[in-house]
Fold this sequence. Notes:
The complex is a heterodimer. Chain A is built from two helices and four strands; from the N terminus they run ββαβαβ. By secondary structure, chain A is an alpha/beta fold. Chain A has a domain of 61 residues. Chain A has a three-stranded parallel β-sheet, sandwiched between helices. In chain A, helix 1 links the parallel strand 2 and strand 3. The radius of gyration of chain A is 20 Å and the shape is elongated. By secondary structure, chain B is α+β, with helices and mostly antiparallel strands. Chain B has two domains: 201 residues, no CATH class; 123 residues, no CATH class. Chain B is 38% helix and 14% strand. Chain B contains 15 helices and 13 strands. In chain B, the strands form four sheets. Chain B has a four-stranded mixed β-sheet with strand order 5-4-6-13. A four-stranded mixed β-sheet of chain B has the order 7-12-8-11. At the A-B interface, strand 1 and helix 1 of A face helix 1, helix 2, strand 1, helix 3 and strand 3 of B. Strand 1 of chain A pairs antiparallel with strand 1 of chain B.
Amino acid sequence: MPAMISILDPTAVPASGQQQTRRTLDSLQGKVVGFIDNAKTNFNHLVDDMAMVLEKQYGVKSVIKHRKRAATLAVADDVLKDMARQCDVIITGSGD
Amino acid sequence: MPLGRTQATALGYADLPIAVVAHPFASHSRDKLRKLADECTASVLKLIREAQPAAESVTKAAARIATIDVEDDADAVNRLFRERRWTDGFPVVAPTRERVQRMLRCTPRDARDVVAVIPPGFGPATVELIAINAVMAGCEPEYMPVLIAAVEAAADPKFNLQAIQATTNSAGVWLIVNGPVAKRLGMNAGINCLGNGNWANATLGRALRLALQNAGGALPGDMDQATQGQPGKYSFCCAENEDASPWEPLHVERGYTAVQSTVTVVGASGTLNMNMHSKDDELLRSIADTMAHPSSNDYWFGGAPWIILSPEHADVLKSLGLRKEDVRRELWERSKMPANRFSARERVRIQSVRRDELGEIALDSLIPISPKVEGIGIIVAGGPGTHSVYVPSFGAKNAVTREVIWAG
Lengths: 96, 408
């Protein structure tokens, strides 16, 4: 039987914030949808096209779009609060 | 997906609906994007309708560090670390309880103190976790106060660590040490100070990187999406050559006294050697022209690039009657680039990010590398020779300095 040692795990326990409650939606008819565009190339076009589909095919009342100045810069708190106040759903992008 | 899911969970939205869009789409035509929009919208709708309301749950308390039993053999230990992706690709020193305790004796802080929460996974970097990674890297116990200060500095919101940890950019964290601690730990500020060979430089830079990786959870190919990365992501650490500098050192410039010791973290995209033999004003022109390149993140964001001046170059500039702030101002002015040197796409990006600062940009507008003169960082380091180093920065961040607090 080989000799054994105990070593300590160098990784952090992943964070798990207090679970937030959410509403669910049965449909988007008459709803306001927000987009936070992460400013990566072509995301603005994808947002425009998705907005058109949502309004024409799914009866969305209106679409609010916010394009970040750059992907690596966070959205300002007041912008987030304002969008949360106005929108029923917000779609945001992560990655490239 | 890993980045989105990990961050959503950390913020309390473990069941946040996430739609995955086929990537990359940056070069898609408009027709292809329209088709993608149809697919994407359908996926999003499906997720919204199928999503279940979140269940109540309790925030997890910070757990004790786990221990793992492994064969007392270096190969077995490193096999374990490789399999679990706990290392940087190099072998480690096994973080046994005894070794970690030796580290912890060199700081007055409690082992379970949370020094910082590290993005993108928002894992807590406790004093103990930092000590574990310090052992792995090969640090001496007396390095702990420096490492704790470095982790704290890197987690400062002004540093924007989230951006560095999960970017496609090559950026890594460069650690600069100032004050008496540098000599106390035998750090290298002279010949080959950015290279191999010095224990403190090598292991401190490595330990910082390991701690940020293992606490933040950003592994290459998962949440760390660096297209190529850079060697500085293994270790990037040096002391300033305060003895050879004709000016005040970095930490004094930043408001500390000469007898205090500090760490400064910089989001560095790499290094570029500048071999310059001028003994006059042309030295400044050469440096400024090196800084001015159209693929630079610094111009895009209005960044914070750095110059590591060799002692010889610093003396030349001093002999021209220049203070450090004069050098900074000259470089800021001379490195301004006309907008027509950037590609059309980069001009659009610069305009978007810097509109408030620069207004409307014309093709002949001169774009400064940093919003303010003070954005350019300068230290003196290295040995004899006509080589200085340009360190472009990630751009969307500021260097942060923290004092090193000793036990006694």
